[in-house]
What does this fold into?
Amino acid sequence: MTAPAAEFDNTFVVDLSQFQGPLDLLLGLIRDEKVDIYDIPISRIADQFLARISTLGLDQAADYLEMAARLLRIKAQLLLPRNEHDEAWEDPRAELVRRLLEYQQMREVVDVLEKLAEERRARFARAYIPPSGAEPPPSPLALSLAELLSAIDRVLRVAKDPAVHDVIPRALDVDGAIATVRGVLLLQERARWRDVVRQGAERWEILSALLALLELARRGELKLKQANPFANVFITRESPGQAA
Amino acid sequence: MNPLAKLLEAALFSSARPVPKEELAALDPESSPAAVQSALDELRETYDNNGHGVELVELGEGWQILTRPEYTEAIERAQLAVRPHRLSAAALESLAIIAYRQPIGRAEIEEIRGVNVGGVLKSLHERGLIDVTGRGEGIGRPLLYGTTPLFLEQFALRHLEELPRADELAVALRSEPKPI
It folds into this structure.
């Protein structure tokens, strides 16, 4: 409870956070009022209970409000007139008393557990594991130096020498190939692919010759003809005068 | 010390958790259960009588070597080990109810404590002190909770029967649990 609340509420100054819920608060009231738990003056206790929870925020109030409603119901039931000789009558407080006793008994067990836990907390076990639930570190490797060295040896023997590719730039010689093609066409009007590309030519020579033929065809110096894919390529001189 | 006691000492020293007697007996198939027990007694007496910083304790359904309480503060000050956090009062209340009434559903725990216990059950479960042990009858087949071996270990109990019986408590109570 905050200080300003205490100013206008001088009857009860109580911090509900110290209670573990409505049953705990009720037991506290019964203790403070020094009343018999088997003969609870419900009216008085209910009023006190309501007064003490009046400062509660909505979020914490639900559990307490339920108990408050229960107390008021019992209070109302006790006010109902009844036949003195009605043997079936059951004290409406009985269920509450049972719950209070049950709660009290549980609190007694809590004391026992608290003591046990405190004793155990004062001792460390051999292999301490952080309570955070973090994974324990992996166990150390069981490996001797000799085993490690022989493993390295095995790997080196199995591993092949890496294949190293040297990339050598080789420029195409299109101009040279153009000169070759022109030379061939000077001697003969018609030529074939193998007349301009020598047997066993390097890839760059083949490419150069192809580009030279295409270039000359574009300039109109020759005509290329291929009947089908992969068939022979026929090269025909177009304008002999120009070529010369 | 006899050879079996030394073997048990080494095994207990290497284990991160209490070691059940059956597992200790498996270390040496030649030894009878009685021999294992007397070796354990011998080890415990050696620690007790010869002034050791550790002791042999029976807990959590097994045996474990633990440091003696008088050294806890120094060990913690040197940050060699940290004590686990204390449980909150709310967690202890719920744990007490579960320990006595297991298997028990959340609704019954809330009935006894008079408050919502969802968050508390989650944190007890995260700390490994309780586990889901089954499902109850009734609407939605509620999860039923029970305590774990770690609970026994952290409360230095050998078994649940070591907790005071209900009729030994100062507050008398109905004997049979109410159906949920």
In short: Strands of chain B lie at 54-59, 62-67, 104-105, 130-135, 143-147. The CA atoms of residues 18 and 64 of chain B lie 5 Å apart.
